[in-house]
Amino acid sequence: SFYYGTFPAGFLWGVGSSAYQTEGAWDKDGKGPSIWDAFTHRKGKVLRNETGDSACDGYYRVKDDIQLLKELKVNHYLLSISWPRIMPTGIKAEQLNEKGIQFYNDTINSLLENNITPIVSLYHWDLPQVLQEKYGGWQNISMINYFNDYANLCFEKFGDRVKHWITFSNPWAVAEKGYETGEHAPGLKLGGCGAYKAAHHIIKTHAKVWHSYNTTWRREQRGMVGISLTSGWGEPVDPHSQTDRDAAERYIQFHLGWFANPIYRGDYPEVMKNYVGRKSAQQGLGTSRLPTFSVQEKTYIKGTSDFLGIGHFTTRYVLQKNFPFLQVSSYHTDPDLAELVDPNWPAPGPKWLYSVPWGFRRLLNFIKTQYGNPLIYVTENGVSETLQCPQLCDEWRIQYLKGYINEILKALNDGVNVKGYTAWSLLDKFEWNKGFSERFGLYHIDFKNKNKPRYPKASVDYYKKIISANGFPNPREVENWHQKAMDTCSATHQHLAADSLITHMEMVTEIVLPTVFTLCILISIVLLIFYLRNHS
After folding, report:
1. Which of 302, 308, 462, 524 lies at 20 to 30 Å from 447 by C-alpha?
2. Spatial contact of 309 and 375, defined as CB atoms under 8 Å apart
3. CB atoms inside a 10 Å sphere around CB 330
4. Is residue 176 annotated as a catalytic residue, yes or no?
């Protein structure tokens, strides 16, 4: 049932995006190549072979996009820094890019001038390509020191103004999609080992960066360092079945617990160690494919988060499923479970993203119980559409945001320590291996238009109302927001249709007319040659 009420005073409302997905300018002003530049430039890696080379042109549109943030009346903006933009090879001793540093300085200053708090992620997947080629990226332990150098440079250059730092955004995807399935950059399929090894190095890197901040910068800058973990909720198919309940627990531990357990409790979840260890032994391996932390490392890692960032999109039903003994090992068969969805769950966009708001409250309560009720910022939550024609009247996104934000309000009443919410995302942007086919933005971008204009969807108006009211005051008012949002988007849709027609005409003018003109000249030359031959 829907709960009417407001959030505590001082609750932070925001919106987010990431560098590679929005900035573009992939090789401009001294930026070095990232693994995503290399990956997208290889044919067949991304749908329709699209790239983030220009993305939303965010590098050139900072002022415009901050204007959108002001329109939304958000308290904060979550952005990421592109490591190769400020350190082209990823190695501090080799080269710094002053223009890249200046770009982020200007962005941070502009946000603060407009009373918008920057929440900055140091890593949203764009590792410098040089580090991948030289060392094998996150498979190599040397990344710990290279990343720590980069993080310290960011603290030095921006830490006087940035007070909320995220070390890694969704490291689960970095490890699993980058080194297990190869769907994401760097595109490696190191089945059964690669993801665990990458995650191990990422967790140790996170801890090192937290300690660096704690010893060198905290007293002077008084900021916070956390991590952003993305996880779905796993609900047992049969809540009365112990095997299903255990399988659902494994689902959460193999996603969220993989990273959160070492940081909050000092080691990998027992169930992960047991399952991966047993399967490794069955395969005749002398040691587990899941690496181990030394006693010193466990102590060093435990407690290295001032807040926990949570990304959450959807829920699955989970049940026990025994996989037969396989010589080929895989992270996906290690937990012995199967995932199901309810066909009645709304799935407005891609087939993985079902709208199941009640799962969010359960996930937040799990975190409260499991990790000692940490300070939580919701760092990513949103829904995408996959429709080819522009959809500004995004009724499904309004329903999604309304449902999921309401579950946070319920979780607050349960005693969960949530301090802020970040809608994902500000703009339609480059969605990794899906290219531009999935659109998460509150603002629509016409990517066919070279100016990449931004148009507000109905969800902009609706989210703005939630922010202004700091929640959901009463049924009549909330119903009124919905009607107003739909009215506004109809007018914007007409504006977009007119602009699209103009863009189409401009394309015709730019491409067709010169082509026709060239053909006319060629035909004239051919006719002239015939004429001269006949008269000679």
Report:
1. 462
2. no
3. 16
4. no
The 8-class DSSP code of residue 82 comes to: -
Count of residues in the chain? 536
Residue 318 has pLDDT above 60, yes or no: yes
Give the distance from CA 178 to its chain's centroid: 14
Give residue 509's Cα distance to chain centre.
38
Residue 99: alpha-carbon gap to chain centroid:
25
Instruction: Determine the Cα–Cα distance for residues 45 and 471; give it in Å rounded to an integer.
Output: 42
Catalytic residue among 23, 180, 249, 380: 380
Residue 210 corresponds to which tokens in the numbers above? Answer: 């937290």
pTM of the model: 0.93
Range list of β-strands (E), 461-522: 471-472
Mean pLDDT, residues 236-264 = 98
- Mean pLDDT score of the chain, rounded to an integer? 94
Tokens at 536, concatenated: 């000679």
Using alpha carbons, list the distances in angstroms from residue 27 to 20, 23, 34: 12, 11, 10
Asked whether 367 and 431 are in contact (CB, 8 A), the reply is no
The rounded distance, in Å, linking the Cα atoms of 430 and 138 is 23
Give the residue from 86, 91, 79 showing the smallest Cα distance to 29.
86
C-alpha radius of gyration, the chain, whole number: 25
